[in-house]
Amino acid sequence: MAATDAPKAGADVEAVITGVRNAKGNVLVCLTANAKAYPDCGKDPKSRKLALPARATLTAKFEDVAPGTYAIALIHDENGNNKMDVALFVPKEGFGMSRNPPVRMGPPTFKSAAFVVGAEPVKLPITMKYMF
Asked: Distance (Å, rounded) from C-alpha 50 to C-alpha 119?
């Protein structure tokens, strides 16, 4: 059996992202199991990241994700600077989280966005939100 034919240790995770308001820039997608690094996955060296060209609906797929509890954070990086732009602590660009938790003061917690990965594939709908 070739190395590429080895059985997977984990499952595939797909995030179906809707509500992207335009095709400017990229949608940055981050998958993390580190609650302390959520939603800024840049603080988690083990996080998995994707940058997808923006469009109204897109799918982010992470293959062979080890079993555990994870959360996904999204940013619609319209200006291509690879970060969330804010005005007076309010996001100027779109964002989203797994499980679509309500947004109140500050970002949703890891717990409110968390989902479990086991042996079966996981498919999550995520709706992009915009404050401006």
From this structure: 22
Residue type, 24: K
3-state secondary structure of 104: strand
**Half-sphere exposure (Cβ direction) of 123: Cα atoms closer than 13 Å:** 3
Extents of the domains making up the chain = 3-127
- Which whole-number Å values give the CA distances from 44 to 16, 41, 125, in the listed order? 23, 5, 23
Instruction: Tell me the one-letter amino acid at 52.
Output: L
Contact 100, 127 (CB under 8 A): yes
| Nearest alpha carbon to residue 21 among 90, 84, 76, 80 | 76
The pLDDT tens digits along the chain (132 residues) read: 455 556 678 999 999 999 999 999 999 999 999 999 999 888 899 999 999 999 999 999 999 999 999 999 999 999 999 999 999 888 999 999 999 999 888 889 999 999 999 999 999 999 999 998
d(CA 41, CA 48): 8
Please provide the CATH number assigned to the domain covering 3-127: 2.60.40.1120
DSSP code of residue 129: B
